[in-house]
Amino acid sequence: MTTDKQSGQATYVRGPLRPGKLRSVRSRQARRLASHAFRGVDVVFIAIVTGVMLAIASPGPVLQAPTAFVAPFVLGGLLLVHVLSASGAYRFDRGEPWWHHVAHVGALSFIVGVITTAIAALLDESDIVAQMKWWPLVLLVGICLLHTFWWLLVARWRKQHWLTPNIVLVGATARAEELINEAIARDDINVIGIFDDRLERSPLAVLGVPVLGNTEALLTHRTLPHVDLIVVTVDPSATVRVREIMTRLSTLPNEVTLMVDQDEDAARLAAVAHLADAPLAPVARTADHERKAVAKRVQDLAIALPMLLIAAPVIALSALAVKLDSRGPILFRQVRHGFNNEEILICKFRTMRHEAADAKAERQVTAGDDRVTRVGRVLRKTSLDELPQLFNVFRGEMSLVGPRPHAIGMKTGEIESAQLVADYAHRHRIKPGLTGWAAVNGSRGPMHSPAEVKRRVALDVEYIERQSLGLDLKIMLMTLPALLGDRSAVR
Predict the structure, then answer these.
(1) How far apart are CA 345 and CA 392, in angstroms?
(2) Model-level pTM greater than 0.85?
(3) Are the C-beta atoms of 75 and 134 separated by less than 8 Å?
(4) What is the pLDDT of residue 484?
(5) CA-to-CA distance for 178 and 176, rounded, in angstroms?
(6) Number of Cβ atoms within 10 Å of the Cβ of 298
(7) What residues contact residue 281 under an 8 Å CB cut-off, 6+ apart?
(8) What's the pLDDT at 381?
(9) For the chain, which terminal residue's Cβ has fewer other Cβ atoms within 10 angstroms, N or C?
(10) CB-based contacts of 422: which residues, under 8 Å, 6+ apart?
(11) What does each C-alpha distance from 60 to 55, 57, 69, 317 come to in angstroms?
């Protein structure tokens, strides 16, 4: 285990708190947001049970049944959904035993069911309500069975480290040692490594967790797409040093936090426990970015499937045209940056001669570029070459709307584009998209000057800050007119 003091890179890269398999933040986020899917299934189950039992109990069509008979059960079902969410039934906190969780949701289901049935009996004098006496029991059994399955699924994810946070520390300090000590004792935090900008003073490892390099090395480290949180463990009283570190790290898409002093052991343990808890995203008090992530995923799946069906003939004809026009594969595959700098493999229809393909985008396309084929010019001008990326959307690697994914190492002139703008990585704080705010505002295709790179990044960051369902729909509606009316962009 050695460290190159000049480059700041360590050759030893595995410690006692690093999982056997590193998973990207994006792939693990999908598990974390599963709480919303769990609640959705519960809602459907409650609705089906209520509807079926009302249909059985009612002598005629349910829609013609007395309001005093139907309304209490409909409102009771809605109340149960709310109570389950508000009580934290979808958090599945670490350490909560199965029986405790199931008893909790079962009791809530039964109590709401009994109260609802009692109210319905008071409002409706007929004996129809008497036939609904099984409603609370069916809800109790069904919700308990569903949450038993949810609990087992979440327990499996935790065992496979899908829900365990991956963190890196900045500062090989006593605070770092305290955090690592607690993480080893708890075995529920993955500390990938440590970075320190004073390598000449730092050890090669802290309690077995390796020092992987200096702060500059962290900015380009290959583990970043797998890191949930960067924890600065430098003494907060060293304000100048902390400010410099935070300024440097602000260019990353990862979340950064500062570990402050905890004088009492209980306070320190509580802070570490909060970090390690990593519950499923709460559905009752969902953070805005989590709510948006769920809504965006549902939106992508709901729109992408009809899009794929409608575009299927165009995709087939485009593939045939590419094959007949020139030798080589139909698809062009390229590694690009996705969410949180994750490397994703995207597919496009091949628009260049196969032997002239430029996987690293070291030479951006220019007007009259001799590498582009005849069919390729049509596909690029209409952006039909991007249609295969619908499959990236289905895999969850891309979204319908977002910053366009750029090739890794893409150059503007002789300089790598990412080095021209300090906030370049901020465009990776959200999934890349098939279309985006920059594209409909005239910034699409190659960028041949630093000013074009800065404008593209500024538009992408503006979109991330404003992202909403309404804005996404607006961009999708603007995309076709923007492409057809764009005569200046070279693609």
Answers:
(1) 8
(2) no
(3) no
(4) 60
(5) 5
(6) 14
(7) 32, 33, 35, 36, 287, 290, 294
(8) 82
(9) N
(10) 251
(11) 8, 9, 13, 54
Choose the weakest-confidence range: 147-156, 189-198, 376-385, 406-415.
Answer: 406-415
Nearest to 325 by CA among 262, 253, 381, 373: 373
Place of tokens 């079902």: 77
Q: Are strands 399-401 and 433-435 parallel, antiparallel or unpaired?
A: parallel
Which amino acid would we find at residue 432?
P
> How is residue 358 written in tokens?
């430029």
Best-predicted range by mean pLDDT (68-72, 149-153, 213-217, 287-291): 149-153
What is the rounded distance in angstroms from the CA atom of residue 464 to the CA atom of residue 443?
16
For residue 469, name the pLDDT band (cuts at 50, 70, 90): confident
The string of pLDDT tens digits covering residues 157-173 is 988 888 888 999 999 98
| Joined tokens for residue 80 | 């149960």
Biggest alpha carbon distance in the chain? 86
Place of tokens 């000590």: 181
Span 438-449, mean pLDDT? 81
CB 330 within 8 A of CB 349: yes
Buried b (16+ CB within 10 A) or exposed e, 68-93: ebbebbeebbeebbebbbeebbbbbe
Taking the C-alpha atoms of residue 467 and residue 463, their distance in angstroms, rounded to an integer, is: 6
The three state secondary structure string of the chain is CCEECCCCEECCCCCCCCCCCCCCHHHHHHHHCHHHHHHHHHHHHHHHHHHHHHHHHCCCCHHHCCHHHHHHHHHHHHHHHHHHHHCCCCCCCCCCCHHHHHHHHHHHHHHHHHHHHHHHHHHCCCCCHHHHCCHHHHHHHHHHHHHHHHHHHHHHHHHCCCCCCEEEEECCCHHHHHHHHHHHHHCCCEEEEEECCCCCCCCCEECCEEEEECHHHHHCCCCHHHCCEEEECCCCCCHHHHHHHHHHHCCCCCEEEECCCCCCHHHHHHHHHHHHHCCCCCCCCCCHHHHHHHHHHHHHHHHHHHHHHHHHHHHHHHHHHHHHHCCCCCEEEEEEECHHHCEEEEEEECCECHHHCCCCCCCCCCCCCCCECHHHHHHHHHCHHHHHHHHHHHCCCCEEECCCCCECCCEECCEEHHHCCCCHHHHHCCCCEEECHHHHCCCCCCCCCHHHHHHHHHHHHHHHHHCCHHHHHHHHHHHHHHHHCCCCCCC
Both tokens of 62, joined, read: 């349910």
Instruction: Confirm if 25 and 228 have CB atoms less than 8 A apart.
Output: yes
Other beta carbons within 10 angstroms of residue 357's beta carbon come to: 15
Count the neighbouring beta carbons within 10 Å of the beta carbon of residue 174: 11
What's the sign of the alpha-carbon dihedral 199, 201, 205, 206?
Answer: negative
